[in-house]
Design a protein that fits this description.
The protein is an alpha+beta fold and 266 residues long. 35% of the residues lie in helices and 20% in strands. A hairpin with an 8-residue loop joins strand 7 (202-206) and strand 8 (215-218).
Length: 266
């Protein structure tokens, strides 16, 4: 199936004529008609133009067969979502395995984190990363470990590594779930996630440090999501006992000492 049929279906859903679309895009009617009839093949600039106008990804425009789309697929297109948030289509996930054919946990070092958005699916990028194994984790799920920068997510401090479980269906993420979110613009961020997919096709990302304001990221700008499992830290969390707790602890200790003395006397 050619790209022209997809363009025609998108135009018909907009209830626009070829001339109207051509005028909107700054093309001649004959040029646009040639693309729809598969007489001419659009170059990259034209593909970007069509992608932005119809709010579909270039990948979908070129590879998908829109004639096979269901209502749920068209709802995603109409809402402006390029990504498959429900995970119906297999997300590409490159993994590293041990000699025993067991999935290993790739650890993304701080120095390698800047290139993760480009290399996350590249075997050459992943195979040189350090790996480890946590036997108490499920063998049926995929895990990866990410470095933490900054002070936005206490008690997880800078220099820690968060282990995350790969999320296939983003709709399943519950509000208040800590996640590693890999975005196109900001790279790797660790935040508490609130799911706004149904209403705004987005996620709200919040910090546990209230100094940092929450912000919203559209699903189209997200590459991967990994649900928090555990973390490895070079520091112990601060343990603070207020005056009331300290006073009660002293009273309990005095009571225990008194009981021990009574037992000894008897």
């Amino acid at each position: 199936m050619g790209i022209g049929t997809n363009l025609k279906m998108l135009r018909n859903r907009r209830k626009m004529s070829q001339e109207e679309v051509a005028n909107e895009l700054g093309l001649t009617r004959s040029s646009y008609s040639g693309y729809e009839n598969n007489v001419a093949h659009p170059n990259l600039d034209s593909l970007i133009l069509f992608s932005e106008f119809y709010s579909v990804s270039i990948d979908d425009l070129v590879k998908q067969d829109f004639s096979k789309y269901k209502d749920s697929d068209w709802n995603r297109v109409d809402s402006g979502l390029h990504v498959d948030v429900k995970g119906h289509k297999l997300r590409v996930l490159t993994t590293v395995v041990s000699e025993e054919n067991e999935d290993l946990i790739e650890l993304i070092p701080q120095k390698a984190s800047a290139g993760y958005t480009a290399g996350y699916a590249d075997p050459d990028y992943l195979k040189v990363l350090p790996t480890f194994h946590l036997p108490f984790l499920s063998k049926d799920r995929k895990y990866r470990s990410f470095p933490i920068k900054g002070d936005s997510m206490p008690p997880v401090v800078e220099g820690s590594f968060v282990v995350g479980e790969f999320v296939q269906n983003w709709m399943s993420i519950r509000n208040g779930t800590p996640c590693i979110v890999v975005t196109k613009d900001d790279g790797i961020v660790f935040k508490v996630v609130h799911n706004l997919l149904s209403s705004e096709q987005s996620f709200q990302l919040c910090s546990t440090n209230t100094f940092y304001e929450p912000y919203v990221v559209h699903a189209n700008d997200i590459v991967e999501i990994w649900k928090f499992v555990n973390y490895i830290s070079p520091e112990l969390p601060d343990l603070k006992i207020d005056d009331t707790d300290l006073s009660q602890s002293l009273k309990d200790l005095q009571k225990e000492v008194h009981e021990i003395k009574s037992m000894i006397k008897n």
